[in-house]
Amino acid sequence: MFVGCVKEIKNQEYRVGLIPSFVKSFVDKGHTVYIEKNAGLGSGFTDEEYVQYGAVILETAKEVWDQSDLIIKVKEPLKSEYAYFRPGLMLFTYLHLAADEELTKALLESKVNSLAYETLDVNGSLPLLKPMSEIAGRLSIQEAAKYMEKPFGGKGLLLSGLPGVKKAKVMIIGAGVAGKNAAKIAIGMGADVTILDRNISRLEQLENEFGFQIKTRYSTHSTIMELLPETDVVIGAVLIPGAKAPKLILKEDLKKMQTGSILVDIAVDQGGCFETTHPTTHLDPIFTVDGVIHYCVANMPGAVPLTSTLGLNNATLEYSLLLANYGLEEAIKQNKYLLSALNTYHGKLTNQPVAEAFGMVYEAY
After folding, report:
1. Which of 9, 301, 302, 316 could form a disulfide linkage to 135, CB 3.0–4.6 angstroms apart?
2. Which of 31, 96, 221, 346 is catalytic?
3. Residue 244: what pLDDT?
């Protein structure tokens, strides 16, 4: 099979879908791997390294898209890339279709067989989303701490406080992978941490793991409203796989927050869990609404591309090789979990939450 990897063109996106050493795994199975020129530079990988492991370097993205049966990416295709779509092409990447009706329609009209990293479900876990959720969770506290500084418009509050001086209060909504990792870093930085979730078993797990370093609360809008006035940082880490994120904090709720408080929306790729969320970039990461600073970067792990690229590749290689070795239909027979990643197939929308988000017709594979 002809396997292709192109350079990401999303603003400030430095990750790459395939690292040089993993190219050899495809070449050893008889596949040809095309890499767009300079695709890996943002993550620190040169074309020479790709060639060393058997890749063929092509000058343009168009050449890679046109000559490949399987495209391995990181981020969802942008509008300028829709022209490369064609029937039967396999696309394996993060898609977040429930927040992007235009892309959904483009994939359906072009009859691309698209598989989304974020919807691949293995017995209730999301192994291809997990490493990026871990990174986003950890980065969320790191970024919140920075924007809490006065030169960035924040309160001028140190997360850890000092002896005799109060700690910053951090509320994490969502106790999944991202939320847990946000808590881990917030605790490490000495903050006063409260985690909200509707899964009591999950809250119990985190209490057992972190002990008295955290507080836990059952997540309701009234609970959030109770905590908001004294909260300095809110981390939105709620995920409904494949679906739009629920709006947990409304614009009118911001009036309860103190000026210079921080909202970090990890769920921005899925539409965001704050009503006032809109996607931002690493070059222009924040905006302020009613005195509350919003950090809503849509590709947070792109800020640490070497770490995130390696973590992502470690997670995706097994499934990418299955697609290359067997083709889509046989790969799904070999590993039933791949079916949960399939979002569009020969012009049919095979992801039910996406169909519900846009009022489209869902058709099972």
Report:
1. 301
2. 96
3. 84
